[in-house]
């Protein structure tokens, strides 16, 4: 979405705030949720936030298997993502009384699949996917563009989260481009992320929060490149070393939305999910997938040319794609 196309801070901030709060207070249609055990509100109107189906069901098993298969098939070169996201979501859904919301933070360079995985996840969880009334996306460029309005944004965000969790405890909140978020803003949602029963009268333990950020991408790329220089496979990267390093990098970066954040300091993020840089053969897989989706002939020569047209780093070896698979779709048109 282009800057200023939604919640524009233009001439009527008071009106925008009023509309925001009104939307937060408005109950959504109950048929928007999938009828999954513990995530179900039946079509035709069950009670919001209730869990009328068994805590564990065959349908839920099918959900996890389907998500895992989709990730393996359509998310190129990210085995660490599959290893973390699927078990995390499966375990969270199986627990009828989770101790806290599920909080995940996706980190990596442009074009490695962070936004794609988050949209895939909500598509499996919610009927209508990103268009579901229970899925809420926030962009710092669109919703929080002006640093001088930080305090107003904090109030807006707190009321938005509270209002939507009151409507449905099984809501999902996606925070995009956390590396562009004003430092200090995101900490206003800390009370909703911890292990308490209620906040402001709302039970929020069944919600999902996903943060998406390019911050930490340079560190991930460096550690992956170091492995390559050591003649090791990129998948051999140590999660024990990588995750604390990412958290430290974003916590100490004054340009990051997590700068000096209590969310990091209090370990409220359950899973820090690294997205690795993509190699040439991964980009070729993206090209093939895009050609198939567009109904175009998969010709090896075209696949090679499109993959070769993308910049790679480091400059000398050209090992990893500088833009992941982000520009594949736009580049294909030049070869047909």
UniProtKB/TrEMBL annotation:
<dbReference type="InterPro" id="IPR001270">
    <property type="entry name" value="ClpA/B"/>
</dbReference>
<dbReference type="GO" id="GO:0005788">
    <property type="term" value="C:endoplasmic reticulum lumen"/>
</dbReference>
<dbReference type="InterPro" id="IPR027417">
    <property type="entry name" value="P-loop_NTPase"/>
</dbReference>
<dbReference type="Pfam" id="PF06309">
    <property type="entry name" value="Torsin"/>
</dbReference>
<dbReference type="Pfam" id="PF21376">
    <property type="entry name" value="TOR1A_C"/>
</dbReference>
<keyword id="KW-0547">Nucleotide-binding</keyword>
<feature type="domain" description="Torsin-1A C-terminal">
    <location>
        <begin position="278"/>
        <end position="335"/>
    </location>
</feature>
<keyword id="KW-0732">Signal</keyword>
<dbReference type="InterPro" id="IPR017378">
    <property type="entry name" value="Torsin_1/2"/>
</dbReference>
<protein>
    <recommendedName>
        <fullName>Torsin</fullName>
    </recommendedName>
</protein>
<dbReference type="GO" id="GO:0005635">
    <property type="term" value="C:nuclear envelope"/>
</dbReference>
<keyword id="KW-0325">Glycoprotein</keyword>
<feature type="binding site">
    <location>
        <begin position="108"/>
        <end position="115"/>
    </location>
    <ligand>
        <name>ATP</name>
    </ligand>
</feature>
<keyword id="KW-0067">ATP-binding</keyword>
<dbReference type="GO" id="GO:0016887">
    <property type="term" value="F:ATP hydrolysis activity"/>
</dbReference>
<dbReference type="InterPro" id="IPR010448">
    <property type="entry name" value="Torsin"/>
</dbReference>
<feature type="signal peptide">
    <location>
        <begin position="1"/>
        <end position="30"/>
    </location>
</feature>
<dbReference type="InterPro" id="IPR049337">
    <property type="entry name" value="TOR1A_C"/>
</dbReference>
<comment type="similarity">
    <text>Belongs to the ClpA/ClpB family. Torsin subfamily.</text>
</comment>
<dbReference type="GO" id="GO:0005524">
    <property type="term" value="F:ATP binding"/>
</dbReference>
<keyword id="KW-0256">Endoplasmic reticulum</keyword>
């Amino acid at each position: 979405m282009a800057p200023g196309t939604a919640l524009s801070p233009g001439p009527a901030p008071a009106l925008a705030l009023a509309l925001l709060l009104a939307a937060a207070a408005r109950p959504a249609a109950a048929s928007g949720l999938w009828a999954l055990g513990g995530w179900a509100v039946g079509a035709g109107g069950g009670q919001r936030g209730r869990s009328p189906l068994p805590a564990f069901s065959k349908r839920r098993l099918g959900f996890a298997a389907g998500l895992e298969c989709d990730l393996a098939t359509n998310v190129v070169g990210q085995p660490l993502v599959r290893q973390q996201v699927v078990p995390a979501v499966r375990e969270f859904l199986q627990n009828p009384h989770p101790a806290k919301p599920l909080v995940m933070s996706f980190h990596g360079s442009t074009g490695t699949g962070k936004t794609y995985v988050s949209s895939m996840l909500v598509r499996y969880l919610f009927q209508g996917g990103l268009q579901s009334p229970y899925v809420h996306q926030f962009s710092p460029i669109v919703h929080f563009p002006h640093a001088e309005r930080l305090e107003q944004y904090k109030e807006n965000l707190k009321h938005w989260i509270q209002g939507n969790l009151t409507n449905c405890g099984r809501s999902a909140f996606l925070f995009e481009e956390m590396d562009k978020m004003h430092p200090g803003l995101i900490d206003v949602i800390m009370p909703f992320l911890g292990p308490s029963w209620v906040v402001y009268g709302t039970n929020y333990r069944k919600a999902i929060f996903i943060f998406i950020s390019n911050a930490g991408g340079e560190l991930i790329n460096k550690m992956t490149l170091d492995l390559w220089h050591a003649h090791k496979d990129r998948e051999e990267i140590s999660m024990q070393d990588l995750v604390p390093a990412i958290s430290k990098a974003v916590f100490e970066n004054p340009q990051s939305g997590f700068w000096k954040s209590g969310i990091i300091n209090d370990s409220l993020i359950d899973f820090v999910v690294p997205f690795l840089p993509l190699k040439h053969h991964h980009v070729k897989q993206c090209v093939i997938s895009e050609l198939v989706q567009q109904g175009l002939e998969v010709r090896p020569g075209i696949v090679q040319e499109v993959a070769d047209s993308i910049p790679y780093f480091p400059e000398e070896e050209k090992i990893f794609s500088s833009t992941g698979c982000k520009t594949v779709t736009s580049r294909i048109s030049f070869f047909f």
